[in-house]
Amino acid sequence: MSTEDDVKKLCDLSKLEIPDEMIMETAKKVKDVLGLFSKLDEFTNSDFDLNTVNDLRIEKSIDSLRADTLFSVHVDNKDNKFDFKPLNSKNGFIIGPRI
Amino acid sequence: MSQLFREPANVIINRIKRGELTAEEYISVIIDRINNMDTKINSFITKNFENAIKRSREIDKKIQKGEKTGVLTGIPVGIKDNISVKGLKNTCASRMLSNYISTYDATVIEHIKSEDGIIIGKLNMDEFGMGSTSELSPYGPVRNPWNHEYVAGGSSGGSAAAVSSLQIPISLGSDTGGSIRCPASFCSVIGLKPTYGSVSRNGLISYSNSMEQIGPIARTIFDIVPILNTISGEDRMDNTTVVLKSQYRIKSLEEILSSKLRIGILSELIETSEAQIMNGIQEKIKVLEKFPFDLEDTRLGILDFAVAAYYIIAMAEASSNLSRFDNIRYGYYSNPEGYDWRSYFAKSRSLFGDEVKRRILLGSYVLSAGYFGKYYAKAQIVRSRIRNEFEKLFMKYDVLILPTMPVLPFKLGERISNPVDLYNLDLFTILANLTGFPAISIPAGFSQEGFPFGIQFIANAFDEQKLIDLAVLFEKEFDYKERFESI
Amino acid sequence: MNTKPVNEDLLKIGLEIHCQLTNLNTKLFCDCLCNYRNHLPNENTCPICLGLPGSLPLLNKRAIEFAAMICLAFKCKIPERISFYRKNYFYPDLPKNFQITQYNSYETSSIGYNGLYDFANDSSHGKDKSNINNNKPTIRITRIQLEEDPGKVTYEEDKSSVNNYTLIDYNRAGVPLVEIVTEPDFSNPSDVRIFLNEIINIFEYIGVCDPTLEGSVRCDVNVSLRNGKKVEIKNISSFKDVEKSILYEITRQKTLIMHDIAVQSETRHWDEKRKITIPARSKEEEEDYKYFPEPDIPKINLGGELFISRLKSIMHELPAERLNRYTNLFGITDHSARILVNSKRISDFFEESLKFYQSPVEVSNWIINEMLTKLNESEKHENIDKISIEKLSSSSFYPKLIATMARLVDEKSINRSKAREIFDISLRTGEDPLEIAKKLDINKISDTEQIIVLIKKIAEDQPHLSEQAKNNPNVYNFILGLIMKETKGKADPKVTLELIRETLNTSS
Ligand SMILES: [Zn+2]
């Protein structure tokens, strides 16, 4: 992963457009960063299973969660009215591209 | 011209509260200062002067009527442009959001408003917080107030530079991997990254949401405390926040010295820094020896993997967090009519900057099915290991000392073309983000050429008070106020 | 049509059922209304469900409880703690371009796992009970997970190629969905139908979802034959089409196999109009969802046994539990019990009626033989006043009526045709059946003293009868006739006959 074709394919998956003249530079920089990432290849530790996610998310009790009541989040006063104007709309619908 | 802008917030607040100064008088001094200064620094993206004046008059009315006012009475606070302020543009220094106006206030903004602080404007930064120089902005680079040809550090460069250049006394930044502390170090101000979960992220536009926190920047620890109290605490709008035990405060010297702080010095990291930083910090530590503290050299293992682990996690999360910017609901003006959704998405998203695009590509690469174990899962393991190491150290020490940055500010454009070099400069700051622990950067002196550098303290989770105590001591011992005369 | 597969096909069917928790008040991560229906487009949205920059998901506690109830209904294990993952993919109906869901590859993150559904205990297939124990498999439930629904994309014109743009409505975005994933344990499309009906029934019982709302319950299917590749069928908008789509897919795969063409592992869409499956775009297959833990939501500690026992205490009785109670405790026949339990409304009506008269067998008879028959008749006739189970359950009058009818039959021993007459009048006029019975004067005389007096009077008036009775038993019936005439049919014939025998024998 760092050839220009790889970058183009990755752009496609990430829904990104990179101009042709930038592809080569992008590929080079991506390669550099992957070089940095490959540092982790030297990290070996048999205590850990790579098929688990050992992230540091905190834990909370279910009782701490929001109750299923209206206006529990957005207090409906006039100062706080949700006033959102979408980019393109028609009869309340947001206009999107063809699918 | 009034020199009021030189005064710290805590002095101003008292004068306004006592009626010796009106909020409106002060805010107009500040506005003049910004108008004069920011053409050189480029720290503001959006100025909110009209509203600020209006707000200052309301505060003055409250005071005239004898009503109680908040801990930030009349103080203009600058906000990094990735924190939502209702009715103001929220660009994240990205062309993707050049027309996006926030529909709601971030929780920290609500708190500042209710403490009678004044939102003075939105501050420049690296696009979406991805950078450590504040050069990666379509609004132009932020310039270091100590030398305008040099970088201010980043990504909260605007937040640090605006405070350092005496435009505003207090600002908010966000810190994902040092984005508050790095520019604080480069600009000679105090920057604090709170413990993960102690400040609400509601309204902060996510870059790497498992690591970032909003935090304050000011010129004195006496100004950090009221803003930190204002923004900290559990928030029903952010499920990852937790209840905090008590308010932070400035303790007397006697009180601070009455408990024997145990301090671990990460000498290895100090020694790998640029010579002037190394010498400067070692000198400061010597001064600490006169206090009744336990000072001890110590070290951290597996640091070799920290930068890689940090960037893998940050980019993975970024690739997902930035997916929502597809320019259908909000963004910059464009029309999807006639486009197939795939090409519309790709075309719209081409307005991300190059660094952001690379991080999105790399982030989705490290998360992809075949590489998840090699990169992301492994990075999380390294992260846990680093956290474990810190936890062990915090059984022995209250605070760890290390430099904020291993280098002095460098010239604009000097390092911009080599991302990996820049990433490696983040080693000292990312540790607090990987572990979630609180960290503060405070001014530690100047190089012979006149460039500032910072010293960093890291404490155990929710031990911000210890960072504040040590900062108070430091500020009493080493005062760089006279330096600001030159600005 | 003979598409019924034979065992040698090794037909394996698995299901993914999506169910909106429509009975919640608010969405999964914000306090917009869970009931998104009947809103103007994009009216039921906020920064969170529109995915505006900076907004964070705020998990709904009751959504977890509802999902856990579904888990209990399917005998799933519920872990100590659950967590959420991001499923990353781009699509215009997804406000964040990722979906917050649960994912079990790296840890047990989902609210339920390792469940079971046993056909032997279900309530819905009284008719083909004979096969229950022969070939109905036990269905393993792989997992049950909680996730968010996306928005809705529509076109202005029916023909999609005419449209230059789409219209997006995010009112549905963030509505809580529970996904039930089964192992491929079905070997018969009709079992799938029975299972889906039972699922709907269970949802109604535990009150988490109103399956009558359009789009509230959706189903994806995967089908494989002879240990071949698995084909997924998506987009099946109605449950009625699930069985059809499976049958179509079996035929399609068989045809391929017959022509020695390998079945591809693929995703196909159900074409509702043409009733066929068509290949989905190949792109969707390669999709790599790049799952990773959602940093904005902490791991949620449910609280173990305490959580589960508390849920059980507030959870509505399940159909299988009711079935058990009706047959074992009430002594209702399996057939009748299934008819009652098969619909929560009818079963609840039954329970309500029992409050007025605790005689389960007679009450169930009245409901099944009389009331449901009436309902069916009214279904067929367009022009008469519709009586619906909804209407009948809406007040306590009708359950009380059924109870009274059962009591009349039980205690006063009126005959069934008269009872029906009373029932009809009462249904029509709303009058109390006891009053009607009085008016019709058909209360049976069960007072033996009164009958004995009558018998003795007849015996005295016609003394020859006692003598004749010794040789001719028909005399008893003759006397009975006289008494019935005298009492206008109010006397209980059985009792009276016995009394006649006794009285004549002792008097002689
Ligand atoms: Zn909402």
Write a concise synopsis of the structure shown.
The complex is a heterotrimer of chains A (99), B (487) and C (508). Chain A is an alpha+beta fold.
What descriptors fit this protein?
heterotrimer, B: 487 residues, alpha/beta, Amidase signature (AS) enzymes, two-stranded antiparallel ribbon, 17 helices, 13 strands, 40% helix, C: alpha+beta, Arc Repressor Mutant, subunit A, 3-stranded antiparallel beta sheet, 18 helices, 15 strands, binds zinc ion
Structural summary, described in words:
The complex is a heterotrimer of chains A (99), B (487) and C (508). Chain A has helices at residues 4-13, 20-37; strands spanning 59-61, 89-90, 93-96. By secondary structure, chain A is an alpha+beta fold. In chain A, α1 (4-13) packs across α2. The model of chain A has no long low-confidence stretch (mean pLDDT 85). Chain B has 17 helices and 13 strands. Chain B has an 11-stranded mixed sheet, sandwiched between helices. In chain B, β2, α4 and β3 form a beta-alpha-beta unit. The longest helix of chain B is centred in the last third of the chain and has 24 residues, at 373-396. Chain B is globular and about 65 Å long. The mean pLDDT of chain B is 96. Chain C has 3 domains: 12-223 and 281-304, no CATH class; 317-443, no CATH class; 448-507, Orthogonal Bundle (Arc Repressor Mutant, subunit A), CATH 1.10.10. In chain C, 43% of the residues lie in helices and 16% in strands. In chain C, α15 (448-461) packs across α18 and α17 (474-487) packs across α18. Residues 126-133 of chain C have low confidence and may be disordered. The structure holds zinc ion. Residues 27, 30, 32, 45-46, 48-49, 174 of chain C line the site of zinc ion. Zinc ion binds at residues 27, 30, 32, 45-46, 48-49, 174 of chain C.
